[in-house]
Amino acid sequence: MRTILNKKTVFWLLLSIPAVLMLSGYWRGTIDSMDMLHPTGEWSARLMIIAMMLGPLAAVIGPRPWLKWLLFRRRALGVGAFAYAVLHLIFYMVDMGNLDDMLAEWTMPGIWTGWAAMLVFVPIALTSNDAAMRALKANWKSVQRLVYAAALLTLLHWFWVHNSYQAAIIHFAPLILLWVVIFAKSVFSPKVQSKGI
Amino acid sequence: MRILSLSILTAAAALGFASTPASATGAIKCKSGPVSGWKSQDTLKAKLVKEGWVVRKAKVDGGCYEVYGTTPQGDRVEAYFHPVSLEKLYVAKRGKVLFRKEGY
Fold first, then answer.
1. Mean pLDDT across B47-62
2. Which residues of chain B are within 8 Å of residue A187 when distances are taken between CB atoms?
3. A91 Cβ partners below 8 Å, 6+ apart?
4. Are B49 and B55 in contact (CB under 8 A)?
5. Are residues A188 and B12 in contact, defined by beta-carbon separation less than 8 angstroms?
6. Positive or negative, the Cα torsion across A127, A133, A135, A136?
7. Mean pLDDT of the A98-125 span
8. Total domains present in chain A
9. pLDDT-based confidence at B9, cuts 50/70/90?
C-alpha cells in the first residue's frame, strides 16, 4: 500500500483532483466558464508557490523526510502549476468567446501581466524533463529560475485583476516570509559574517 | 536556530492570516436595510437588459446587488447596485474601477 501511495503517478493524480472536480462541475453545467477563472488561477499559483517554497524551506528547517518526499516531486508541482495556468487561459478564452474582445483588453494591467506570466511559464514547463536537463546542462537552472519572474507577474496579475491585495498576499506570504528568514539568517549568522571578513 | 526560525515563521504566518479579514471580497458595502425593503434581482436584471446590458450573473454582496455582465458600451464588468434604489454604485473592468459613486 505504502509503495503504491509513494508512486509519482499517485501524486500526479492527487494534483489533478481539483481540476477533475472543477471540470466535472463545468460539464454538468453547475459552474459557468466565468467561475472557472478564479479557481484555476488560484490552483496554478498555489502549486507554483509550494514548488518554490521547498528549496528555501529546506534551507531554513534543514532536511526532513517529508520535505525530501516533496522535493522529489517538485517537478510535478511545477508542471501541475503550468497545467492549471493552461486551464485558466483556456477558460479565459472560452469566457471571452472571441479574439476581438481579448485583443481589446490585453493592455489592461490585470490582463497583460497574466499573458506575460503565461509566456514566461512556457519555457520553464517545456524544459521540465530529464532530456532538457541533460541538453541544457548549466543553462537549465537559469531557465528554471525564470519562475521568479513568473511569480512576480502572477502576483501583479492577481493583485490588479482583483483590485484587492488580500487573497494574493495570503497566498504569497509564506514564500515571502521564507525569503525574509533566509535573508535574516544570512545577515545575522556569524559564520557567514566571518566568511565576509 | 532551527527551532527559532520555525517559531518565527509560524508566528509571522499566524499574524499574517489573523490580520487579514476573512471576507476579502466585496468591493463596496451598502447600508440597505432589511431585505423585505429590497427590489428583486429580477427587477434589476430587467432594468439593465432594457438599458442594453448583457447580464451573466447577479448575487448579493456586501448588502448590494453585484452583477457580472457586459455594459451597453461592450465592457465586461463587475458592477454593484443599491438593492433598494437600484442605483449604480460601482463598476470595475478586470479590476480597473470605471465608476464609483461618491461616498462609496
1. 95
2. none
3. A33, A36, A37, A40
4. yes
5. no
6. positive
7. 95
8. 1
9. low
Contacts of A101 in chain B (CB under 8 A): 76
Cβ of A9 under 8 Å from any chain B Cβ?
no
**Out of B5, B17, B92, whose CB is closest to A170?**
B17
Domain limits, chain B:
26-100
Question: Does A60 sit within 8 Å of B95, measured CB to CB?
Answer: no
- Option in A62, A110, A181 nearest B95 (CB): A110
Q: What is the mean pLDDT of residues A53-64?
A: 94
CB environment A17-35: b (16+ within 10 A), e (fewer)? ebbeebbeebeeeebbbbb
Contact A60 B5 (CB under 8 A): yes
Q: For residues B95 and A165, is the Cβ–Cβ distance under 8 A?
A: no
User: Where residue A134 sits, what CATH number does that domain have?
Assistant: 1.20.120
The ipTM value here is 0.74
Contact list, B56 vs chain A (CB under 8 Å): 32, 34
Under DSSP, the state recorded for A30 is S
Put simply, the answer to whether A61 touches B68 (Cβ < 8 Å) is no
Q: What is the mean pLDDT of chain A?
A: 93
Nearest to A175 by CA among A141, A152, A145: A152
